[in-house]
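Standup notes
- DV: blocked on the single-chain target, sequence here:
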Amino acid sequence: MQMFLQSLVSGVLTGTLYAMIAVGLTIVFGVMRIINMAHGEMVMLGMFGAYWSYSLLHLDPFLSLLLWMPAMFLFGMVVYRFLLRKIIPGGELNSLLYTAGLSLLIANLALFLWTGDYRNINLPYGMLPARPFGISVSIPLAIAFGLALAITSLLSLFLSRTDTGRAIRATAQNPEAAALMGIEVGRIDMITFGLGTALAGASGVLLAPSLYLYPTVGEILIVKCFVIVVLGGLGSIPGAIAGGVLLGIVESLGSVYVSVAYKDGIGFVLFLLVLLFRPKGLFGVGRA
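- DV (later): unblocked, structure below
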């Protein structure tokens, strides 16, 4: 029973961070109807941002969130303004291929600049785990879990309580009607892509103390992200959160009761079962 609870807690903590990555991808798809294949590389940039902040500036990775989340937001808007804006009207296939190329470009630039060496962040308070109720909990992972919940809650408030958030939701529901109501759809698209990129970067910062860093880490993260959004229903924020937590739990339980070597494979089996029996995902097709 203790092992089951340990696996469950670890799965929920990790799954919440997975969910945060997927929420960024879901928001971009919900508003702009593009699947950003470079989303995993945005997470990787956030991870390296946290690493270099800690290595060069001795800034705690979680504090560096205040630096890298706004920086990634601006980076996302620049990418949209100068690289994506003219591509999106060409259709979803063009956008898919273009962002796939962007993914390769970012990953290879990172390889050129930082080499393919594996790196990690060793925090002084991350050496020994906390043991509430006898369950071992990584302190950096627990902090990341709390911050992920806070950021997701703030995102929900932003989308529901602010004029810009309501404009994003309106554009997601019907861009033509939103334009007729005076909403600048192009501006909203740029803000949305910046927001999705900021969430990806923030997820990378939160994951950095718990994972090894290398320039191609985005490849496995984007695959997990696609599993999550399909589990929860592409375009559904609640679905992305539920799908992320579910994937984290399945991977954690699978690594304990089956094999660590098959952890990722078990997630894909779940992915295929959902596609087979509920193609719309656990929450159907939602809107951002």
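- Follow-up: The CA atoms of residues 133 and 286 lie 38 Å apart.
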